[in-house]
What we know:
The structure holds 2 protein chains of 2 kinds. Chain A is mainly alpha-helical. Chain A has helices spanning about 15-40, 40-45, 55-80, 85-105, 105-110.
Amino acid sequence: MSFSAPAKPSSLPNGPGAAAILAAGVGSFALALLALAADKSAPLKSALVFWKPTGALSGVSTVAIVLWLLVWAILDLRWRRKTVALARTNSLAFVLLVLSFLLTFPPVVDLF
Amino acid sequence: MEITARSLWTLIHGMGFGALFLLACSGALVELYRVTAGSAPAPATLAQERFLKVYLLSMAALAWAAVLTGAYVVYPWYRAVPPPGTADLALFPQRLLLAHPATSGWHSMGMEWKEHVAWFAPISITMAAAVFIRYGRGLGSHKQLRAAVLGFVAASFLAAGIAGFFGAMIDKYAPVQGGPAIQITNGGEK
């Protein structure tokens, strides 16, 4: 029965997974960076008001999501059949993620 | 017993999508760890793998529903600007919080962090769902990929936890209210 079939070692290269992980880090960092930039620059803040009732958050989140999906698609295309140095991409993704948490934390934002 | 339309939407956003997502996070971490563990005494079955795929996809849907209802339904009511001279700020939660030094931090620290950090949850859990759908139980043979996916699921838990905590506290001090009243039951005479 297929329902109890044991897991086979994956024959997929790690490239597609690495692309998804790194893109998630980049997307989160893009959101944090845009939020910080919008907080410090009035012209950018008003440019990011895509929908007035939600204010600049509408533009910050939309642009970050588009960037995240774009980076994911590009990396996936490039790494689909490749095995990449995962230690490096993972480290970079986690550094970006930690920076994202920090750069959205208001006391840190106020340092800039 | 009645509830206003805005309060109902706040409940759907926080207690519905947000709280369900938070509840599901620990289950996702445990199941992802177990299903992809190479050293598990009983290897995961295909049915368990399929269940986890649906579970992670549902979590991604919950996370997106939480941030989208938060940003595009509840947040505009929260940040609404009162007409000049308005004395009663009950319908303007952001201004109500900022009007008192004892509560202003719930906006300047709480909402300012919550409105951005919350987005890390859907991004992270969507990535985790996509990677697991692609690799399935085979993720266990990619130790570094598995570790990163587990790390991002934990990060989505943290992001949703921060957003949920501040959302609950802000709603305690300055609830989003107003809009048409929805009658839930007719109160009997006492």
